[in-house]
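From the pipeline queue, job 12 of 40. The input is one protein chain; the requested action is below.

Action: predict structure.
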Amino acid sequence: MAKLYFHYSTMNAGKSTSLLQASHNYREGGMNTYLITAQLDRRAGHARISSRIGIGQDADTFAAGDDIYAKIAARKTKEPVACVFIDEAQFLTKAQVWQLARAVDDLGVPIMCYGLRVDFQGNLFPGSAALLAWADEMREVRTICHCGKKATMVVRKGPDGTVLKDGEQVQIGGNESYLSLCRRHWRQAVGD
């Protein structure tokens, strides 16, 4: 039975690594997978999912106005799809998450979404909020704070390393821009 999964965490938890490994396992078993990532994230190049440990794979992309149900349905007419993998799922719109739920229900394909739960201000991303509401199963991908506790929050750093409290919700970046922390150390970093 197909399900909609949401694998969530903070930055640098290994979400993309897990996605690529799971896709590899399907392909190794002779099954096709369909990988999709956010068009606006070009850290690994255009239309590519990549991990900090150096593995990567080409993927299709989505933008805010795209009909992801139609993308999946079109792909399934070309070849069988055993599983759909979505990276950077926090950038999905609420409507796109509903399209994914419909694809699971109507097309019978499991969909595994990987993304951030909250932004640098501790707020849910729209795509993450919808996935938390509608996913059949949720799994936390864990990483740790410098103190050894589970990291559940992230701070954004400026060019000089200072913690930023204001700004747009979306700013693409990696270790140079973000640091994952436990809630207590996040509160200390943002002055709460």
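Job complete. Residues 4-142 form a domain with the Rossmann fold fold (CATH 3.40.50.300).
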